[in-house]
Amino acid sequence: MANEKRFEGKRAIVTGGASGIGMGVSARLAGEGARVAIWDMNDEALSAAREKIGPGAVTIRVDITDPDAVQAACEETRTALGGIDILVASAGITGPNTTVWEYPVDAWRQVIDVNLNGLFYCNRAVVPVMLAGGYGRIVNVASVAGKEGNPNASAYSASKAAVIGLTKSLGKELAKNNITVNCVTPAAVRTPIFDQMSQTHIDFMLSKIPMGRFGTVEEVTALITWLASEECSFTTGGVFDVSGGRATY
Asked: For the chain, which domains are there?
């Protein structure tokens, strides 16, 4: 059972926080006492998130592929919340489902720009604020595809593998600063991101999960919020599976 006061007094950013896993994390953090800045590009979803979460949330429209916009959003968040203790970097896109040799170059660049570069900009922006406050929890959302590589999803798999590497590097860099940096590697979870995938690819992902079902937002949220909590004090640079038995290492 969730501890209702676990995040009392904490200030959090959740990117992609207006839908899917990000929305689940935003709602749970706010429900357990945090003040949450929800970063997203979808105005309609941001309005719905603000209505659902209420006064514990600040909503900010930000394009994470623009480093200047990320820095401005970080400053706006710090002013609004009085600091930043937690970053959950959950924004991401899948890109098309096709082979490497047929992959559109522009689509490749877009996936890398959102899933890797955008996440880097967000991590980079919050660290100085966390260092000044002497505390921080960063949770990056990768994917089991980043560990195993999904066929017909090369850009997505490559971007998520890079997120794992970035997480390990930053975790080591901050290991002595009371700031932990970890990532989660979910298998498929039925969220609006499925709308970006072909049915064939969805069926393939399900076939790889030994439990024979997709994960739930609540299951992934439970792991992310532990990693974002004070309890996660001796774990950094870690990669945490939530894959229904799919992950093999």
From this structure: 11-236 (3.40.50.720)
